[in-house]
């Protein structure tokens, strides 16, 4: 079984491009790539601000699913011109990722991101419901 998760804002971007912000399936949340977009879908101009906005947008979707970045187990980032932009982008990660253990990471350099310079997509483990926690803690014999 699977269902979609949507943030409270930014629906125009998803409707215009015909994709789901996130899909819950088999105990995981699969989040579409998040960019530094404003509510109307337009990009934030400054690269560092774009990265912060992408993380804010990601946090909004994670929260809509009852998760936080602490639940993220895998991240893939895409950046335009990584040789030039990596040092500008990387400090934001240490601000936003929190304490270890950190998720796995794959970084991909790309030549085009639909008008953006940075994108992050993640997979998060969904928190267990209280009944499921009880069943794991005290399995029946």
TrEMBL record:
InterPro entries: RutC-like_sf, YjgF/YER057c/UK114, YjgH-like. CDD domains: YjgH_like (cd02198). It holds the Pfam family Ribonuc_L-PSP. This is RidA family protein. It comes from Roseateles paludis.
């Amino acid at each position: 079984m699977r269902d979609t998760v949507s943030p409270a804002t930014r629906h125009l971007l998803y409707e215009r491009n015909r994709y789901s912000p996130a899909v819950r399936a088999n105990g995981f949340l699969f989040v579409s790539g998040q960019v530094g977009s404003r509510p109307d879908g337009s990009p934030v101009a400054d690269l560092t601000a774009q990265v912060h906005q992408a993380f804010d947008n990601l946090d909004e979707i994670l929260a809509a699913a009852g998760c936080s970045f602490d639940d993220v187990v895998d991240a893939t980032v895409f950046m335009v011109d990584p040789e030039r932009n990596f040092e500008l982008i990387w400090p934001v990660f240490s601000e936003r990722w929190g304490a270890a253990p950190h998720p796995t990471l794959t970084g991909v350099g790309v030549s085009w991101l639909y008008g953006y310079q940075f994108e992050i997509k993640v997979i998060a483990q969904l928190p267990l419901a209280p009944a499921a926690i009880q069943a794991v803690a005290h399995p029946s014999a």
